[in-house]
Amino acid sequence: MSARATPVAKAAVVLGASHTGMLTARALAEFADRVVVVDRDVLPDGPEPRRGLPQARHAHMLWSGGVRAVEELLPGITDALRSAGAHRLPVTTDVVALSAQGWFRRWPESHHVILAGRDLLDATIRREVLADPRIELIGGAEVLGLTGTATDVTGVRIRARDKRERTVAAALVVDATGRGSGAPRWLAALGLPAVERREVDSGLVYASRLYRAPDQARDGFPVVSVQPDPRAGVPGRTGWLVPIENGRWIATLSGTRGGEPSAANDDFLRFAREGLRHPLIGDLLAHAEPLSDVSVTRATVNRRYFYERLPVWPGNFAVVGDALAAFNPIYGQGLAAAAQSVRILRDVIRRQGWGAPGLSPRVQKAVARPVGAAWDLAIGQDVFYPGATENGPTLRDRLVAAYVDRLMRTATGNGRVARRVTDVTSLERGAEVLLTPAVLLAAAIGPLRPPLTGPPLTAKERKAVGIP
Q1: Is residue 322, in this structure, part of any structural domain at all?
Q2: Is 414 within 8 Å of 447 (Cβ atoms)?
Q3: 313 and 357 inside one domain
Q4: Do 47 and 186 fall into the same domain?
Q5: Which of 337, 382, 420, 425 yields a CA-CA distance of 20 to 30 A from 329?
Q6: Is residue 67 in a domain?
């Protein structure tokens, strides 16, 4: 086997076949005659678990900023997801959330999320993408490295399940392999310098369990969230209850160092009731039927690679999704940020032209833009937990957090400010909307309505789940 290969003029290779990889393949099919998607797993035909996606056992939300990006890449995908059983949930209308500053009110819809099990989300997108005859899937193959030089990547070396190695030549290789990306190692092997990275690790552990919702709560029940206060001096414990397809709930509990949930089935309900700042999620689960054992994940570190800052960048290569920046899943920004990056990749190629000189560095700088907003949202709380960073929060971290705290408290009693906050959390608008004179003045004044004394469930919702 040759160590190098001549790039094929109109061929592309995508590494990774989950949400981000499949969207990337769809984006590149607009320009390439052939797109090869390589994944280490042999992928199932439908919405079934796979080894390379352990995070699928936990709650996922696709925020409207990401929904719009996915819809641009795959027109009609929202209808396909809803036909498969996914829910469209208005924000903040159908969200019952306890923040560090108190209970949020359920304001009229400003944005929305798509809720589904991750297996269903990936399988639906995969089916739509692979319907394109220009896109080919190679499953059960390990990526060994890139071919080419520090100047130009020409393809990728892979090893199949039968241990045979081969090179797949391409004019563009995109890494969408997620948290386990080997891109830093692959680039170093080509002679490029080490890439700058930052990590914020709150020591978070996730535990999730699947439930069958009570009969009357299987349609239209809100998302329920109990959030921590990272500056309270105690482990940060969080809970989410997310309605998904087929009348089921995914309950995800998490805790930072010293407050981690266990993998024991018989401890899950106790943690939900006694470990969180409010017992609401535990009270709801007590009226639901467990359908699975508890699944635990410990790989939750926030990690961002600053590839766009490298002094040199090889032609014909790009990194997107969790391979570029992986976030603490609790904030739900990963799927949306990745979809927006893929849309930007497509738009840059449209403007510059396939194979244009300097295309790859332009792409890499551009796809980092939505990552910045999601990164600030993710680390804004995590950086305050003990041991999250080597030196603790920076002065900038502290100043931003102080303003965000004030803003969030205002949002509990000011619907206009709540909308601006969800503009940003949904990744529909940039953080600059939180710095306009009107928002700054509102934050200085504070909430216009008194704090809620308990969770804002309706009487109908309480009856549906059997709680007073």
Answers
A1: yes
A2: yes
A3: yes
A4: yes
A5: 420
A6: no
State the CB neighbour count (10 A cutoff) for residue 132. Answer: 12
Number of domains in the chain: 2
What letter represents residue 45's amino acid? D
Pair (238, 256) in one structural domain: yes
Distance between CA atoms of 181 and 450, rounded to whole angstroms? 48
Q: Are 55 and 118 in contact (CB under 8 A)?
A: yes
Query: Do residues 189 and 148 touch, judged by C-beta distance below 8 A?
Result: no
> Which pLDDT score, from 0 to 100, does residue 7 have?
55
Whether residues 319 and 346 fall in one domain: yes
Is the separation of the CB atoms in 41 and 183 below 8 Å? no
Report yes or no: 300 and 199 within 8 Å, Cβ to Cβ: no
Structure tokens, 212: 């069958």
* Signed CA dihedral, 258, 261, 267, 269: sign only: positive
Model confidence pLDDT, tens digit, residues 373-424: 788 777 777 788 777 787 788 888 888 888 988 999 999 999 999 999 999 8
The tens digit of pLDDT for each residue in 134-189 reads 999 999 999 999 999 999 999 999 999 888 999 999 999 999 999 899 999 999 99
Residue partners of 313: CB distance under 8 A and separation at least 6: 192, 307, 360, 361, 364
Residues 268 and 340 in one domain: no
Q: Are residues 210 and 287 in the same domain?
A: yes
H or E element that contains 422: helix 415-425
User: Domain end: 299, 327, 357, which one?
Assistant: 299
Asked whether residue 285 is assigned to any structural domain, the reply reads yes
Q: What share of the chain is helix, strand, coil (3-state, %, to 5)?
A: 35, 20, 40
Q: Which of 216, 223, 339, 380 is nearest to 288 (CA)?
A: 216
Within the chain, which residues score under 70 in pLDDT?
1-9, 230-233, 331-332
Listed residue (351, 363, 369, 348) closest to 315, CA to CA: 363
C-alpha 381, offset from chain centre: 16
Q: Are 220 and 295 in the same domain?
A: yes
Q: Which residues pair with 91 in a beta bridge?
A: 111
Answer yes or no: are the C-beta atoms of 116 and 70 closer than 8 Å. Answer: no
CATH number for 41:
3.50.50.60
Give the separation between CA 338 and CA 123, rounded to whole angstroms.
17
Q: What is the pLDDT of residue 233?
A: 63
Per-residue model confidence as pLDDT tens digits over 277-305: 999 999 999 999 999 999 998 878 889 99
Boundary of a domain, candidates 299, 324, 343: 299
Q: Domain range holding 216?
A: 205-299
Q: What is the pTM of this model?
A: 0.92
Question: Which CATH number characterizes residue 220's domain?
Answer: 3.30.70
| 39, 187: one domain | yes
| Buried b / exposed e along 210-236 (16+ C-beta atoms within 10 A) | bbebbeebeeebbbbbbbbbbbeeebb
